[in-house]
Amino acid sequence: MKALIIGAGGVAGVVVHKCVQNSAVFSEICIASRTKSKCDALKAALDGRGTKITTAQIDADNVPALTAFIRAERPDLVINVALPYQDLTIMDACLAAGVSYLDTANYEHPDTAKFEYKWQWAYREKFRAAGLTAILGCGFDPGATGVFSAYALKHHFDEINFIDILDCNGGDHGYPFATNFNPEINIREVTAKGSYIENGEWVETEPMEIKRSYNFSQIGGKDIYLLHHEELESLALNIKGIKRIRFFMTFSQNYLTHLKCLENVGMTAIKPIMYEGREIVPLQFLKAVLPDPASLGPRTVGKTNIGCIFTGVKDGAEKTCYIYNVCDHQECYKEVGSQAISYTTGVPAMIGAKLLLEGKWKKAGVYNVEEFDPDPFMDDLGKYGLPWVVDDKPVTVD
Ligand code: NDP
Asked: Given a cut of 90, is residue 101 above it in pLDDT?
C-alpha cells in the first residue's frame, strides 16, 4: 500500500525509517515537503530496502495544488507530519481527493497560540459522509498517552477518575538552549497559560505556576510543571468517569532561565514586528538561530520517560496504575539517526498508519486515538521500539 508523508523534519525522518522497516505494509511511500532536498536526503538514505520511495516539493498551505497532487499520487493514506498550521488544509485536500488522513498534533492558527480540537472535530460529518478515516494526534503525547488510557480502561479499570500525564525528558544535548522538536511550536506551547480539567471544567493557571517533583524510573528526580495539552480535551470526553486530568512536563532550571530571558526581551512573541523595512515574527527569527531539532540526535544522551498515572475503580475498589515507556536517545540515534522526542512521535504515527491500512483502525469519521481498540496498537508499540511498563503501585502526584 502507498502512504504520502507530508513534511520532512525530525518526526518525518522517523516515520520514513519505520515505514521502510515495514515494507510489507508500506510497499510505496512518497515524501513531499516544502524543501525537497530534505525529502531527497531521506530517500537517498533508505532507498533499496523494499519500499519504493519517491519525493516531491509541495506547499501544504495551498489546497488546490495539494488536492491535485494527492489525486495524481493516489496514496491509500496521507500522514501529516508537517506543522499543526497545515492540519486543516491537508484535511481539506484529503477530502477533495478521497484519501484518509492521520496527524500527530492538533490544529493551531499561526496568529493565536491556542490549540483546540473544535476545528478538526468540525470535519467529522464530512469524513463520515465520504467514508474516509481521519486519525488525530497519533504521536506519543498526544497519541500513545490516549491509547494507554483506552488500554487501562479496557483491561485495568471499570472507570478512571484521575489521569496525570507525565512527560519527562531526561536527555542532555549539551547546548545551552535548544528545543527537542520544532522550536516555534515548542515555545508557543510552554509559554502559554497552563490548564487542566476538573469536574468537566477547564481550570486555567499562569504559565509554569504549578510545579511538582517526581522520581522517574531509569532517570531519577525531576521538577515537573503543569501545561495545557491537547489530549486533555479529548480524553476528558472519551474516557469514562474522568473527574480530573492534568499534564506535566519536566524542564530544567537552565531551560526555564533561558526561556524567561528570551520572553522578557520579546524574542518569543508571535506578533509581527517591522525590522529593516520588512515584517518579521520574533519567534520565527529565534527558530532560525536555534539548533535544528533534527541535528540534536548525535549529541543527545539520556532517556525519556512518558506515561500516564491512572486512579479509578475496579470491581468496587479504588486502584492506581501507571503505564509508561522509557526511551534512550542514543539507541534511537543508532537505529534511525534521530533523538528520542522525534522517535517517540514517529513510531506511534507509523503504527497508527499501519493499523489504518490493515483495516484495524479504519472507520468513517474523525477520531482521536483512544476511540479505537488499543490492543493492536499496544502490541505494535513494543514490537516497533517503544516497550511499555505497567506499574500497579506507583507514587502519585499530589
Ligand atoms: P520540523 O519543523 O522538524 O518539521 C516540519 C516539516 O514540515 C519540515 O520539513 C517543514 O519544511 C515542513 N513544512 C512546514 N510547512 C510546510 C508547508 N506549508 N508545506 C509543506 N511542508 C511544510 O517539526 P517536527 O518534525 O519536530 O514536528 C512535526 C510535527 O510533529 C509537528 O506538528 C509537531 O507539533 C508534531 N509533534 C508531535 C508530538 C507528539 O507527541 N504528538 C511530539 C513532537 C512533535 P521545511 O523543511 O522547509 O522547514
From this structure: yes
Distance (angstroms) between ligand 1 centre and the Cα of 277 equals: 29
Which runs of E-coded beta strand occur in 227-316? 244-250, 273-275, 278-280, 303-314
Ligand 1 atom at shortest distance from the alpha carbon of 84 = 32
Residue of the nearest CA to atom 32 in ligand 1?
83
Rounded (10°) CA dihedral 12, 226, 264, 184: 10
Instruction: Please say whether the beta carbons of 237 and 116 come within 8 A.
Output: no
pLDDT in tens, 157-196: 999 999 999 999 999 999 999 998 888 888 888 888 999 9
Q: Is 80 exceeded by the pLDDT of residue 113?
A: no
What pTM was computed for the model?
0.95
Q: Say which residues have a Cβ less than 8 Å from residue 59's Cβ, sequence separation at least 6.
A: 34, 65, 66
Summarised one tens digit per residue, pLDDT across range 224-264 is 999 999 999 999 999 989 999 999 999 999 999 999 999 99
| Ligand 1 contact, 84 CB (< 6 A) | yes
Instruction: Please tell me if the CB atom of residue 158 comes closer than 6 angstroms to any atom of ligand 1.
Output: no
> What is the best residue among 14, 15, 17, 34 to mutate for testing ligand 1's pocket, by most ligand atoms within 8 Å of CB?
34
Q: Ligand 1 in contact with 165 (CB < 6 A)?
A: no
- State how far the Cα of 147 lies from the Cα of 376, in Å rounded to an integer: 10
Q: Write the single-letter amino acid at 304.
A: T
Judge if the beta carbon of residue 143 lies within 6 A of ligand 1. Answer: yes
